[in-house]
């Protein structure tokens, strides 16, 4: 049980929405870096070392690819490095690509943390009564990829145990992976139909039905929510004053640092680090109590 | 193992094709365009690039472009200049040579990348389509008329006058009609 997932689903949903929306729509390098830092630290807390290492191995090539793709397609900018097929390749486009990659990975990591923390029972608890069908579809869609990954490993293990795809040739291995992929895809699609049929058979969405998990809105939920709203107000104030404006094209320029801007950076920085701090506090407490025994 | 080598060869071939199709030039190389000298018997055309309409719609212009550096105060990016017309030159060829010679930034979409089969000029002098409102972009006139087709499909004749103008209202503010409507 992670400390952060002990909070009420409503508090958690509002937290994730506010961080994700800000990271996606406030196009400012400091905000983007803060979102990435917070997501990275939080994800590292939620996973073990091996999973984190795997993540890094996956996200670094993704980062490089996303950053390099932009200057190939966007030729705006005043600092021209060289010309490719008659169109300029500019330093601004490179930097914009890096900013794009940072945002992409920050949002992906936040979504990963979301799927670890907000299990489907929490989502259904929040929306099951108001929009039963949509909430079931959404919760199934949100857990699709993690479930797919788990099943993929399962099928691969089974096939390897049967002696299939054990050839050393990379082409053969790739073929085997594709076969496994198609098998898991049809399994997942079939399973989605079965899930909905099974939910219907259990009377999902009917009146008077209770939830799998019952959550109580406790004082610490209110505290986190209030803190969240306060920090978001601080961030949005900076944006409303226009102090977070930043342009990449045609020349990199931004508003100079001011009090509302600085306040917004600090507020958003604290907001993104909140889950990490909560998890860290829990870990330290745990260690401290053990050593005392 | 044999299959691996074959796959590797295929990938190497693909990379070779991509690299072969990419032409990389340094900045100096790119701007080193040869402009033919005008002789008494040579065929010529004139070309100008203007963005006067932005000055009338300055409020709609993207904030980061509101500078003398991107929008000249007289609206003239390239004054009317005479260039030699090479046989088979299209409007785009002359524009390309003119902006290279004058070191003016330009971005275009190649003729193979859209369904019109013609080059589309996205931006000149850092002023792009949609930079000044949702109906803004670059249009061209030849002898005062808007051809309403791609600039790399218009073959020029001796003595013609090309004007590249920036519109903020789909051509209505520069005396053009879009797709023949209201003519």
Concise synopsis of the structure shown:
The complex is a heterodimer of chains A (293) and B (183). By secondary structure, chain A is mainly alpha-helical.
| Greatest interface | A-B, 23 and 25 residues
User: What would you report as the Rg of chain B, rounded to the nearest angstrom?
Assistant: 20 Å
CATH class of chain B: Mainly Beta
Report the span from N to C terminus of chain B: 68 Å
Q: Calculate the mean pLDDT score of chain B and round it.
A: 87
Please trace the helix and strand order of chain A, writing H or E for each element: HHHEEHHHHHHEEH
Instruction: Quickly count the domains of chain A.
Output: 2
Shape of chain B: globular
Low-confidence stretches of chain A: none
Q: Assess the beta-strand content of chain A as a share of residues.
A: under 5%
Describe, in plain words, how this protein is organized in 3D:
The complex is a heterodimer of chains A (293) and B (183). Chain A is mainly alpha-helical and 293 residues long. Chain A folds into two domains: 4-128 and 213-292, no CATH class; 144-210, no CATH class. Helix content of chain A is 72%, strand content 4%. Chain A has ten helices and four strands; from the N terminus they run αααββααααααββα. Chain A has helices at 9-25, 29-46, 49-73, 91-117, 120-127, 132-142, 144-161, 170-201, 219-240, 259-292, and strands at 80-84, 87-90, 246-247, 253-254. A two-stranded antiparallel sheet of chain A has the order 1-2. In chain A, a hairpin with a 5-residue loop joins strand 3 and strand 4 (253-254). The two termini of chain A are 22 Å apart. Chain B is of the alpha+beta class and 183 residues long. Chain B has one domain (25-174): Beta Complex (Ferric Hydroxamate Uptake Protein, Chain A, domain 1), CATH 2.170.130. Chain B is 22% helix and 23% strand. Chain B is built from four helices and eight strands; from the N terminus they run H-E-H-E-H-E-H-E-E-E-E-E. Chain B has helices at 2-20, 27-31, 52-56, 91-102; strands spanning 24-25, 44-50, 76-84, 106-109, 120-124, 127-128, 137-142, 161-167. In chain B, the strands form two sheets. Chain B has a four-stranded mixed β-sheet. The termini of chain B are far apart. The mean pLDDT of chain B is 87. The chains are: A mainly alpha (293), B alpha+beta (183). The interface between A and B is medium-sized, with 23 and 25 residues.
């Amino acid at each position: 049980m992670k400390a952060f997932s002990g909070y009420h689903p409503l508090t958690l949903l509002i937290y994730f929405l506010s961080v994700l929306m800000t990271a996606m729509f406030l196009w400012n390098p400091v905000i983007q870096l803060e979102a990435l830092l917070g997501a990275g630290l939080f994800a590292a807390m939620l996973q073990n070392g091996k999973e984190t290492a795997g993540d890094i191995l996956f996200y670094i090539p993704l980062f490089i690819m996303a950053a390099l793709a932009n200057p190939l397609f966007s030729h705006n900018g005043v600092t021209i490095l060289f010309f490719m097929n008659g169109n300029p390749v500019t330093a601004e486009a490179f930097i914009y690509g890096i900013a794009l990659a940072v945002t992409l990975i920050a949002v992906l990591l936040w979504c990963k943390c979301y799927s670890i923390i907000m299990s489907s029972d929490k989502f259904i608890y929040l929306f099951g009564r108001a929009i039963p069908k949509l909430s079931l579809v959404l919760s199934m869609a949100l857990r699709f990829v993690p479930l797919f990954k788990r099943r993929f490993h399962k099928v691969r293990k089974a096939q390897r145990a049967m002696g299939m795809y054990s050839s050393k040739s990379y082409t053969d291995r790739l073929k085997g992976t594709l076969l496994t992929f198609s098998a898991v895809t049809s399994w997942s699609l079939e399973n989605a139909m079965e899930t909905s049929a099974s939910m219907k058979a259990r009377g999902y969405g009917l009146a008077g039905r209770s939830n799998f998990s019952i959550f109580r809105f406790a004082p610490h939920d209110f505290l986190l929510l209030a803190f969240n709203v306060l920090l978001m107000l601080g961030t949005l104030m900076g944006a409303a004053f226009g102090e977070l404006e930043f342009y990449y094209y045609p020349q990199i320029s931004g508003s100079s640092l001011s009090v509302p801007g600085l306040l917004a950076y600090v507020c958003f920085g604290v907001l993104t680090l909140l889950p990490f701090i909560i998890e860290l506090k829990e870990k330290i407490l745990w260690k401290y109590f053990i050593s005392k025994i | 193992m044999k299959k691996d080598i074959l796959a590797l060869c295929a990938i190497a071939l693909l990379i070779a094709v991509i690299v072969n199709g990419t032409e990389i030039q340094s900045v100096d190389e790119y701007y080193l365009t040869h402009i033919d000298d005008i002789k008494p018997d040579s065929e010529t055309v004139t070309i100008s690039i203007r963005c006067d309409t932005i000055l009338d719609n300055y409020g709609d212009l993207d904030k980061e472009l509101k500078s003398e550096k991107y929008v000249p105060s007289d609206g003239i990016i390239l004054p009317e200049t005479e260039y030699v017309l090479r046989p088979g030159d299209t409007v785009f060829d002359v524009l390309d040579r003119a902006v290279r010679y004058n070191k003016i930034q330009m971005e275009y979409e190649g003729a193979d990348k859209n369904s019109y089969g013609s080059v589309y000029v996205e931006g000149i002098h850092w002023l792009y389509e949609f930079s000044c409102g949702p109906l803004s972009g670059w249009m061209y006139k030849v002898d005062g008329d808007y051809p309403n087709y791609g600039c790399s499909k218009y073959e020029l004749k001796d003595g013609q006058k090309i004007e590249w103008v920036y519109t903020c209202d789909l051509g209505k503010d520069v005396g053009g009609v879009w797709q023949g409507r209201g003519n």
